[in-house]
């Protein structure tokens, strides 16, 4: 039985994770952690560790806290599955170094939806055959980081195909700053929409002479992330490696 603690347990995603862990015959929920004080809730991972044996922490908190939470876990022999986005390349690199140095498993996934991961994998494939591409990601208006981790990861995967995706574009001048979105890996423009009514959606638009191709994924219920979360927990419980992206363990 994998002993699991959920960090951010009282949030919308955290509650779904708690239910998924309780429903899975291979996992046992040993601690719920959240900054909100409530009976049966630990306020910190350190506090929970003093009273509970924890194999894996699942963290769905906020970008401002996830990095310190992850460093604490990796320095104290606790494996961690990270679903919170907002980590930058330098922070991810530091966590990878800590994971390998301490031989403690660390699993980071910008998106745990299998459909979203397949969308990203399709975008990586299509990037070989198109010279121009842009990404539009749409989320609810309570999401603090922009662009989304999924969009950043998608651009990173696509960037393996070529150095630039703005081939043939004329010189541009923004009359309103930011109207062309942010520029990421291989000059891929990412446009972020924050709007009530959305949960999580992303489309990748490819173009070439005389044609466009759009790949889109929509998440409409947080339950779609749970199979991926459980896959990550089962993987990290057996391995001490560092993994960035659910696609690395999909068979």
Summarize the structure.
The chain is an alpha/beta fold and 251 residues long. Helix content is 33%, strand content 24%.
Describe the model:
The protein is an alpha/beta fold and 251 residues long. It folds into 2 domains: 2-108 and 222-248, Rossmann fold; 114-219, Dihydrodipicolinate Reductase, domain 2 (2-Layer Sandwich), CATH 3.30.360. Helix content is 33%, strand content 24%. The strands form 2 sheets. It has a 6-stranded parallel beta sheet, with helices on both faces. The chain has a 5-stranded mixed beta sheet with strand order 7-8-6-9-10, covered by helices on one side. Strand 1, helix 1 (12-23) and strand 2 (27-33) form a beta-alpha-beta unit. The longest helix has 14 residues, at 89-102. The mean pLDDT is 95.
How much of the sequence lies in strands comes to 15-25%
> Ends: how far apart?
23 Å
Radius of gyration: 19 Å
Task: Give a quick account of the main beta sheet: strands, pairing sense, barrel closure.
Answer: 6 strands, parallel
User: Which structural class should the secondary elements be placed in?
Assistant: alpha/beta
Tell me the total number of β-strands: 11
What is the helix content?
A: 25-40%
Order of helices and strands: EHEHEHEHEHEHEEEEHE
CATH superfamily of the largest domain: NAD(P)-binding Rossmann-like Domain
Instruction: Using the 3D structure, state the CATH architecture of the largest domain.
Output: 3-Layer(aba) Sandwich
Put simply, the count of helices is 7
Estimate nothing, just give the exact number of structural domains: 2
Walk across the major sheet and give the strand order: 2-1-3-4-5-11
CATH topology of the largest domain: Rossmann fold
CATH class category label of the largest domain: Alpha Beta
Could you report the average pLDDT, rounded to the nearest whole number?
95
Gross geometry:
elongated
Poorly predicted residue ranges = none
